[in-house]
Amino acid sequence: MFKFDFTGKVALVTGGAEGLGKEFVQTLAEQGADVAFCDVQDEKGKATEKELAEKTGKKIKYWHCDVTDEEQVAQMVSEVVAEFGKIDKLVNNAGRLTYGPIESYSKEQWMQVIDTDLTGPWLVSKEVVKQSMMKNGGGRIVNISSVAGMFGTDAGCPSYHAAKGGVLGLIKGQAVEYAKYGVLVNGVGPGTFLNGGMTSRSKVASNPDTHKKGRCPLKRAGDFGELSGAVIYFLSDENTFTTGQNIMVDGGLTSALN
To answer: Which Gene3D superfamilies does the record cross-reference, listed alphabetically (predicted)?
Structure first.
């Protein structure tokens, strides 16, 4: 019988101070894991650390880390391993999105998103595999992709579409290369979630009427906890033979033609 018990495991979540990242920190702790998480929002990070440690009774600790900075990433991973002893599970969740008309979108805007959303998962995974998973006989990685990696919109975020499309390719490449170390790599792609960082900041996206009139077949946005099931499966020891896959948790959005 599958139990999805993470007792004795250590997880690392990037971008865990709020939104979906905070959900992953809480869910992993509720499944029994001790959880390290990083972000660049120190005030929110420290508040999340305190709140979720008290709520779950598990060891939860926050690190300041910019996932685009190679030295910061290597140092953060080293400190997490020193503090927790290992890293068994990794969720690459940290993300960024900037808007602007594609014809006037600057290179700076482009690189800010590419560096955070695509280069970041590569850097963090590299250090976690090198510093812990290779030495400990394997592990599990989930890269958070997006429906935006599968189709375009006129929202004015070309770098986000490119970065999330790149994450889909990164999942495949990592799965093949890391298999020899016993590391399974998969992706989970959210549609619109009410507790997602971008959605919660938008009056339009957070309005239920927006989704009732939209093309998502379920006619609503996702809510807290509805993304974590897929993440938990991919990270669990019960997942022994699935790697290089991406599942869209989007209410059917990417299956709809109109």
So the answer is: NAD(P)-binding Rossmann-like Domain (3.40.50.720)
